[in-house]
Design brief:
heterodimer; A: alpha+beta; Butyryl-CoA Dehydrogenase, subunit A, domain 2; Butyryl-CoA Dehydrogenase, subunit A, domain 3; four-stranded antiparallel beta sheet; globular; B: about 400 residues; alpha+beta; Butyryl-Coa Dehydrogenase, subunit A, domain 1; 3 domains; four-stranded mixed beta sheet; 12 helices; 10 strands; binds flavin-adenine dinucleotide
């Protein structure tokens, strides 16, 4: 047993660290760190810088840009990206649709989509959830009916993240209404500019515009855009969702938040000194850090064990990482709001130009919206209740 | 022991509930009120006045109805349930409370009847950025000059300070920033020369302002209460405000819990209502436990809000807030989680309760601050130990 990285791993970590700090524009990293709005261009810029270096899709097959890395290398890259507050490569592209196309797509689809997906020339969005089908995704009702060499798609998706930026959507649709619900689903790709698509923004409680409703009214999709076989889409979706293994806990991100919490606690006046001088505060911070350290080691154990596991198979360990990782992300946002104290109250967008004197430190005004927004992490990607069900069934045999 | 309301209190509660349900039952209306210039409904404010709510805690001689903390609790609980935007806390509980308890007869008679009839709104401009939650930490100065005073300083997150007509300003007559003596209270016309306000909405959809005072001149009779009695008065009125906020939080929590339970009964996944999943049943049950614990402490706060012993009263308010905040966090976070995606949307009411509850947790001290107050007092069992 040894917690330390090997010399090669340390060299790689240092290389990643200095690359990210050198090559990724500092203003973008600052914006992400502060919880400000990132533009589409910010995300594209960072994605492409990483891809140029071969670090956007290292887990893909070699011929499509992947690297022959050990799981530890993948882990190191992911953690360093989070800790440096670099916007990660777009998950819809690199962790979701890319691997599905690489595994189940036709040769023509691979050639057409994979390079453009890896370089974010195509921005993908994920059309899975529907108003009536959230946790029970397999009950989805958006239907695709065959009409010659097209499918005609009708229905509605919702919570579609950044659909307003997307060029293409990968979508679960019902192609057989007679079969068992998991067996009548297909995995379709289509362009967001197709006639019959309407995107309507959903404003979240923090005032953000990251999710949308997407409506389909007789959208014509060429049959060649079906991935794999008709009615086998559920298997591909499970592959996709099981693919997200490490990184799901977002430990690097929470570490970065806690580092900022320390800094802000030292800058925020309280009593005769600062928030940092309050031992009660440091105790609360320490408690979060202890749990985070435990989760980090848990994650490393999963990573180290991953060598012996089949790719794409769902792994109940990821449920442990998801539950505790989301709770700690939320705890960190709550701690930051606590440090801000009364300065968290003003709802003023620091990016809005004004001649008025500042109200308080800008970071403080972003703590409450970030705390509100992060309630999502225990809801999406399989809610924490669903994760507990998975552990109970798959691990405990209950 | 008696937790029942009197006949009069029941009638009062019914009429407040009717008013709030009528005004806020439809959530769309709240959005309309928020768009009005001051961020709340002026028409509704007049109806509060017509119902006698704005003069509720004032003596009859001052144009009020002689109500106590329990009456205020009834109003605030309804305000919490409806997520009402009107500045009741700022004007009646804080501003009105300071004048009621600290003002001389002339000041009371000049101000309180006008609060009661809805024509005058107040804000308590006390908190300063460096003070965090310490009421005695005051850098703003009041210098005696030419028979009056000159005020200089900066106040932060003054609740409804953007639209108030009259400010009650805490300022230091003597001593250093963190001295517990030498703090006075002054009535300052919001339009006075040297007063500037930066108005903004708060995260819960209410309004506040940063207020700076630069060479603001006020006459001698602008001082509220005896010189140097300021901090005691501020402590007493802040305690009343804490009791009021506890009641508001309970109103918000009960509404949020109820709507969550309704949702569990109607939302279907896997072919059944999600309320049939035991994991969710237990969470909703725990939320009810938290709600009733909070309700009890809101009642405790109301019953202790007028306690003559300042230290005892202050500890009781802190204790109430510790429980309220813990319940509010548990119910707020739980409600969003149990709603799933829909709870994350601006359009849906649940998130607004969650945000208001979160912000209440940052007013007049957070959980850690209040817990420290209780601990510093030796805990709550100290007084019981003394009795036996
Ligand atoms: C910010 C955000 C971004 C998202 N982005 C996307 C996206 O890009 N693409 C996409 O397709 N989807 C996206 N989603 C949707 C997300 O995956 C769903 O919200 C999630 O699956 C939960 O579904 P739901 O919201 O319908 O809640 P529901 O499934 O209705 O759940 C409500 C509550 O019931 C619980 N529950 C449900 N079933 C059970 C059970 N069997 N046992 C115990 N408890 C249960 C849940 O845990 C939850 O607490 C996003 C969601 C959010 C909030």
């Amino acid at each position: 047993m040894d917690l330390r990285f090997t010399p090669e791993e340390i060299a790689f970590r240092d290389e990643v660290r200095s690359f990210l700090r050198r090559e990724i524009p500092a203003d973008i990293r600052a914006r992400l760190s502060e919880g400000r709005h990132l533009s589409k261009q910010d995300m594209v810029t960072c994605h492409r810088i990483l891809h140029q270096r071969g670090w956007a899709v290292p887990h893909w097959p070699r011929e499509w840009g992947g690297q022959d890395w050990s799981p530890v290398f993948h882990y190191i890259l992911g953690e360093e990206i989070q800790r440096a507050a670099v916007p990660p490569p777009l998950a819809f592209n690199v962790s979701m649709v890319g691997p599905v196309i690489a595994q189940f797509g036709s040769e023509a689809q691979k050639r057409r989509f994979l390079p453009a997906t890896a370089n974010l020339d195509i921005w993908w969005c994920q059309g899975f959830s529907e108003p009536g089908s959230g946790s029970d995704l397999a009950s989805l009702r958006t239907r695709a009916e065959r009409d010659g060499d097209h499918y005609i798609v009708n229905g509605q998706k919702t919570w579609t993240t950044l659909a307003q930026y997307a060029d293409w959507i990968f979508c679960l649709v019902r192609t057989n209404r007679e079969a068992k619900k998991q067996e009548g689903i297909s995995f379709l790709l289509f362009e967001m500019t197709s006639p019959g698509i309407t995107v309507r923004p959903i404003v979240t409680i923090d005032g953000g515009r990251e999710v949308n409703e997407v409506f389909f009214d007789n959208v014509r999709v060429p049959v060649e855009n079906l991935v794999g076989q008709e009615n086998r889409g559920w298997d591909y979706a499970k592959f996709l969702l099981g693919n997200e293994r490490t990184g799901i806990a977002r430990i690097g991100l929470t570490k970065e938040r806690l580092a900022r919490a320390r800094q802000f606690a030292r800058e925020t006046p309280a009593g005769d000194g600062t928030v940092w001088d309050d031992p009660d505060f440091r105790r609360r911070l320490a408690l979060i850090e202890v749990q985070l350290k435990a989760l980090e080691i848990t994650q490393m154990r999963v990573v180290a064990g991953a060598r012996n596991r089949e790719a794409g198979r769902p792994d109940p360990n990821s449920s442990i990482l998801k539950i505790k990782g989301s709770e700690l992300q939320q705890a960190a946002t709550e701690l930051l709001m606590e440090i801000a104290g009364p300065c968290a109250l003003p709802a003023v967008d620091p990016d809005e130009p004004t001649n008025e004197p500042p109200i308080g430190p800008e970071w403080a005004m972003l703590t409450a919206p970030t705390y509100f927004n992060y309630r999502k992490v225990s809801i999406y990607g399989g809610s924490n209740e669903i994760q507990r069900n998975i552990i109970a069934k798959a691990f405990l045999g209950l | 022991m008696d937790f029942d309301l009197t006949e009069e209190q029941r009638l009062l509660r019914d009429s407040i509930d009717r008013l709030i349900d009528d005004a806020y039952g439809d959530f769309e209306k709240r959005r309309t009120y928020a768009q009005e210039p001051h961020g709340f409904s002026m028409a509704l404010w007049r109806r509060y006045a017509e119902l006698g709510l704005l003069g509720l805690p004032f003596a009859e001689a001052d144009g009020g109805y002689g109500g106590g903390a329990v009456e205020t609790m009834l109003v605030m609980e309804a305000i919490g349930r409806g997520l009402a935007l009107e500045p009741y806390l700022a004007t009646v509980v804080l501003g009105g409370g300071l004048v009621r308890l600290g003002g001389n007869a002339a000041q009371r008679q000049r101000i309180l009847p006008r609060i009661a009839d809805g024509s005058l709104r107040l804000a308590f401009a006390h908190n300063e950025r460096q003070a965090r939650y310490d009421l005695f930490d005051v850098a703003t100065t009041a210098r005696a000059e030419g028979g009056g005073f000159v005020l200089n300083g900066a106040k932060t997150v003054v609740l409804h300070g953007d639209s108030a007509d009259l400010l009650v300003v805490g300022a230091r007559l003597s001593g250093n920033r963190r001295d517990r003596t030498g703090i006075g209270l002054f009535l300052v016309d919001a339009g006075a020369a040297g007063v500037t306000r930066r108005a903004y909405p708060t995260q819960d959809g209410q309004r506040a302002a940063e207020i700076t005072l630069a060479q603001v001149r006020v006459p001698a009779d602008a001082m509220l209460g005896a010189p140097d009695a300021g901090l005691a008065l501020i402590g007493q009125v802040t305690d009343a405000a804490i009791a009021a906020l506890c009641a508001e939080a309970v109103g918000a929590m009960s509404a949020l819990h109820a709507m969550t339970v309704d949702y569990l009964k109607t939302r279907k996944q896997f072919g059944v209502p999600i309320g049939s999943f035991q994991a969710l049943q237990h969470r909703a049950a725990d939320m009810l436990v938290a709600l009733e614990q909070a309700r009890s402490m809101a009642m405790y706060a109301a019953m202790m809000a007028d306690a003559p012993d300042a230290a005892e009263r202050h500890t009781a308010m802190a204790a109430a807030r510790v429980q309220i905040d813990e319940s509010a966090r548990m119910i707020g976070q739980g409600a969003i989680q149990l709603h799933g995606g829909i709870g994350m949307t601006q359009e849906y009411r649940a998130g607004h309760y969650f945000k208001r509850l979160t912000m209440i947790g940052l007013l007049f001290g957070d959980t850690a601050h209040h817990l420290k107050t209780v601990a510093a007092a030796g805990g709550l069992s100290a007084d019981e130990a003394a009795e036996t």
